């Protein structure tokens, strides 16, 4: 007896049936039982496989499991929605981190070399941003760590090869993990601004855009300019020289960035600046 797994084979079989559009036969049945009025009831025993054609509505099936101890379960399965093909993303030159880690410095160099080889052989199947996301979300983080900051595949390869050779590079940082401390975000002061400094995050990060929108709503009754236009670079560059513009603009960017960090699990203990 399959105990806790009782019924799971039926679930698996019906999931396959839903996917492939074929109703499987009931096994080991020579003749239907005479205890059921098959002629007048809207049920039938499948003695052989039958096509399950698409009708424009999702296929549904019920699976019953009757345990020897009297535990009964009944599950209704529904065909999954058809996946709509997504357009291939246009490659961008957005800067992103490639994070590698290992148990030793020698292993870390080997990891960097293997990642470089992967990027060299998978240019068409693995976009750089997808590789970067996978490295931070699907890999175990070990004690020796390094990050290569790259805005293109060529930059990534240069940084990874340098890391593999033990070179010191401005686009790569390596080190050993230490006991976790407290996290503090420092908001920079005037002088860190540039034209269009918020455009990319406004377009790509809903979290950032929402926080900036909240800042814009709080400011609008006090100013005669648009915070969003300033951050997108849709205003004359001279506006970034006005202290009454750049100070709230920088503050809004920092508030948005803090929200982005929080959204990915980096919650600061304090914010200063």
Write a structural description.
This protein has 273 residues and is of the alpha+beta class. It folds into three domains: 3-78, Thiolase/Chalcone synthase (Peroxisomal Thiolase, Chain A, domain 1, 3-Layer(aba) Sandwich), CATH 3.40.47; 96-176, 2-Layer Sandwich (Alpha-Beta Plaits); 184-272, Malonyl-Coenzyme A Acyl Carrier Protein, domain 2 (3-Layer(aba) Sandwich), CATH 3.40.366.10. 36% of the residues lie in helices and 16% in strands. It has eight helices and nine strands. It has helices at 8-20, 105-121, 128-137, 153-164, 199-204, 206-219, 227-232, 243-263; strands at residues 22-23, 50-51, 60-66, 72-78, 96-102, 144-150, 172-176, 184-186, 270-272. The chain has a three-stranded antiparallel sheet with strand order 5-6-7. It has a two-stranded antiparallel sheet with strand order 1-2. Strands 3-4 form a two-stranded antiparallel ribbon. The N and C termini lie far apart (66 Å). Mean pLDDT is 87; it is low at 86-91.
Record keyword descriptors for this entry.
Alpha-Beta Plaits; 273 residues; elongated; single chain; 3 domains; Malonyl-Coenzyme A Acyl Carrier Protein, domain 2; 9 strands; Peroxisomal Thiolase, Chain A, domain 1; 8 helices; two-stranded antiparallel sheet; alpha+beta; 16% strand
Give a short overview.
This protein is α+β, with helices and mostly antiparallel strands and 273 residues long. It folds into three domains: 3-78, Peroxisomal Thiolase, Chain A, domain 1, CATH 3.40.47.10; 96-176, Alpha-Beta Plaits (2-Layer Sandwich), CATH 3.30.70; 184-272, Malonyl-Coenzyme A Acyl Carrier Protein, domain 2.
């Amino acid at each position: 007896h399959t105990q806790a797994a009782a019924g799971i084979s039926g679930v698996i079989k019906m999931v396959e049936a839903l996917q492939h559009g074929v109703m499987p036969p009931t096994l080991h049945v020579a003749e239907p039982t005479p205890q059921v009025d098959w002629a007048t009831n809207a049920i039938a025993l499948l003695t052989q496989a039958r096509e399950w054609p698409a009708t424009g509505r999702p296929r549904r099936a019920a699976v019953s499991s009757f345990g020897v101890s009297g535990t009964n379960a009944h599950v209704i399965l529904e065909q999954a929605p058809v996946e709509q093909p997504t357009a291939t993303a246009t490659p961008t030159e957005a800067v992103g981190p490639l994070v590698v880690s290992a148990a030793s410095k020698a292993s870390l160099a080997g990891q960097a070399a293997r990642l470089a080889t992967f990027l060299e052989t998978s240019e068409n199947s693995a976009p750089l941003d997808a590789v970067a996301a996978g490295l931070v979300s699907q890999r175990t983080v070990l004690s020796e760590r390094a990050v290569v900051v790259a805005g293109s595949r060529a930059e990534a390869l240069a940084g990874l090869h340098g890391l593999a050779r033990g070179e010191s590079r401005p686009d790569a940082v390596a080190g050993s993990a230490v006991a976790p401390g407290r996290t503090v975000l420092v908001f920079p002061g005037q002088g860190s601004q540039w034209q269009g400094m918020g455009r990319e995050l406004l377009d790509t990060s809903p979290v950032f855009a929402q926080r900036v929108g909240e800042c814009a709503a709080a400011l609008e009754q006090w100013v005669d300019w648009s915070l969003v236009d300033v951050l997108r670079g849709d205003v004359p560059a001279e506006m970034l020289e006005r202290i009454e513009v750049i100070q709230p603009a920088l503050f809004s960017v920092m508030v948005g960035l803090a929200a982005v960090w929080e959204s990915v699990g980096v919650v600061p203990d304090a914010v200063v600046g």
